[in-house]
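dumping this here before i forget
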Amino acid sequence: MTEPVRLARQTRVASCQDILAIGPLLVHRDDDLLDIVRRSARQPATRTIGVIDDDGRVVGIIRVLRLTESIVARVSPEAVMVGIKDAVEVGRFGHAVEDRIAGDIMEPPATISPEATVSEAFREMHKHQVTGLYVVDAAGRPTGYVDLLELAIRLADALDEERRSNSDRASNGGGAASGGGASDQAPTAPGSLGGDATAEGP
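structure:
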């Protein structure tokens, strides 16, 4: 692993969360889903909605896909039923039709410390299958939001730096190999043209 990539993996989340300026979208457990979907439409870059309690702590998340499913199921249930194959999905569809408030569709919180590394944030996103995490303080209150693309951009920058570094080394190495001074020339045999030896008389 090269130094740029190693450093990128250890970059703190706090250094990445403002790359794209994607802010948190926070709601309460009792907020109406119709209001939430309108708020989400005004802030489409935030694809993971945070649910907070009365003390401002993150207690859950809502995926935008799950939110839109709940709205569509109330108007066009046949669209949501497409692809349903087992009892679990049938049960999820039944709940979607009845969903009315944030608490009905929220999932366990997906959060990260601002001191966590990029690698740790990727692991949390993969664990929760989300594209964004809420950055929280020690009390669980949100201080920001980090998106998957912000982490990817940080690593892409490191890979670009690595590629430039490798290219520079290759260029420098090629120049040294192709260039040759007088010391690299083969010695001239004594008595030959251009040699130092002089002809001796009989």
